[in-house]
Amino acid sequence: MCGIVGFVGKKEATPILLEGLRRLEYRGYDSAGVAVYDPERGLQVVKTKGRIQVLADQVAARGGLRGQVGLGHTRWATHGAPSDVNSHPHVSENGRIAVVHNGIIENYAEIKEFLQSTGVHFASETDTEVVAQLLEYYYHGNILDAVTKVIHRIQGAYALGIVCADCPDRLIAARKDSPLILGFGEGFHVLASDVTAVIEHTREVCYLDDGEIAELTADHCWVYDAYLRPVEKERRHVDWEISAAEKGGYEHFMLKEIMEQPKAVRDTISPRIQDGRVVLDGVELTPEYLKNLDKIYIIACGSSYHVGMAAKYTLERMLRKPVEVALASEFRYCDPIVTPHTLALVISQSGETIDTLAGLREARRLGARVLSIVNVVGSTIARESDNVLYTWAGPEIAVATTKAYSTQLAVVDLIALYCAGQMGTVSRAEYDALLAALQAIPEQLETVLERREEIQYLASIYFNHPSVFFIGRNMDYAVGLEGSLKLKEISYLHSEAYAAGELKHGTISLIEPGTLVVAVAGCGHVFEKTMSNVVEVKSRGADVLGVTVDSRREAMGRTVDHVLTVPDTETALLPSLEVVPMQLFAYYVALMHGCDIDKPRNLAKSVTVE
Ligand code: AGP
């Protein structure tokens, strides 16, 4: 979603803002802009529909923008089409106040009507412009006073960056339900939607909390609550290497991140396995608590939800406790049955997905304990959870998640083993076998990645199929959901995933000669059942690409057109391996279609609006 970067210091702001925006490109955007305060010419704004390079060219065409305080923004359109005029920054009618915003002002229509009745003219169709105009309305010489009045008047989600020409040595920021961080440096301060935008300049950051306002100058940073009472903020050091946010020789971040999976999974599991046992420090899952657990409610969106779908099979089988998996956007409005004995397992790469965050808050409100699986350290979901288990995947830049998905699965497996150990629901022999299999996953991932040329070859055979169905049962179905999402999000091909046994209840009518079916059939106990469904689609003319384990290559090969295999492992761990051919297949198909793989159309990396 929208990206914000701001700079105030003793250097020229524009190059820092443009570079920060480039680093935020991965979040997804359709237009971009900067506002810089030039001591001689006042607030200068350049904004445009299109890529950062278009913006940079326009800035250069004006001979650059001079000034040491400024804001930058990448916009992902919500209110008003992508256009030059709807791009941020938005400026109050008299040009005094510039604003960038991430989020949605839900009551913007009512405020706009009110301001229009006082004679204010609006330039854009955006909800954000009401913030700039409302700030001007409330401004009587003190920008902080105006900001507090505005945040008490607007409803919805916002991360705001503000520059006022009357106090041009400072940036103002405010936040509610949309991420915003402050960065500290020698003689400068920065603000940004996430650390990737500022990591080049500083690793010392703090995270603004809901309702807080920040005031930044080159040398000082003040944080206040919504009533301008001072707030002490804890600074954190960010460990991520800048190289982790660069392509390192790969054509796309997505391929780089696919290839990083063995390391990411190893980094995630190794520190949590000691002396043959899973150790989850700081996680309060005691035998007593687990005994009284009535349900595990998994709350997530997109691929994180697909991890939840796989987790349901593993957790229910190993813990014999009911597991419900909810799309966060549904959970928050479905009046869920949650008690103080419910464990809410919240899964999110970014830790900022607005629906997932709202689901977390709803679960807590209803009394559940919240354990989250999060990749971004210090993100809102991590901070608001009772306990958090971080995935150590490092920064994930490609919109299509790969290594975060794999590390989330690994954490689920650790939780399942840990809880089973606490509850005594699996035998020691089964526990040891699963743990050994989990420890073997990074090496097995390397084996799967070594087979990528075969996957590339199959992608070259199948890339022109306009419609693709993924089928599978049990864990294989969960993997099919993720395979289908990967394919559609980056290659724009129509694709659906079905539980294999469900196909004949309607969807099989869509199968005709030339339809591609990807059949995932690693789970031994349902292999024959899935193969029966494969025969059904084959006999209706479908081309079938099978995915199974090495030991069933021959058995599957007798029925399907092509087979891809992964090393054999415990059923519970199959998704960790099976997903990789799906990721690579989607990647190579998208490549052959010439798609913008790291920044697919209409998508954002971190979905911070409903
Ligand atoms: C997956 O490739 C997508 N980018 C998307 O479905 C993503 O998983 C979803 O938006 C959830 O994001 P989160 O894990 O950051 O909460």
TrEMBL record:
Domain Glutamine amidotransferase type-2: 2-219
Catalysed reaction equations from the record: D-fructose 6-phosphate + L-glutamine = D-glucosamine 6-phosphate + L-glutamate
Catalytic residues identified in the record: C2, K605
Pfam family, one: GATase_6
Biological processes annotated in GO: carbohydrate metabolic process; fructose 6-phosphate metabolic process; protein N-linked glycosylation; UDP-N-acetylglucosamine metabolic process
Keywords: Aminotransferase, Cytoplasm, Glutamine amidotransferase, Repeat, Transferase
Domain of life of the organism encoding this protein: Bacteria
GO annotations of cellular component type: cytosol
EC number of this enzyme: 2.6.1.16
Subcellular location: Cytoplasm
Domain SIS: 285-425, 458-600
GO molecular function: carbohydrate derivative binding; glutamine-fructose-6-phosphate transaminase (isomerizing) activity
Purpose: Catalyzes the first step in hexosamine metabolism, converting fructose-6P into glucosamine-6P using glutamine as a nitrogen source.
Assembly with partners or alone: Homodimer.
Name this polypeptide is given: Glutamine--fructose-6-phosphate aminotransferase [isomerizing]
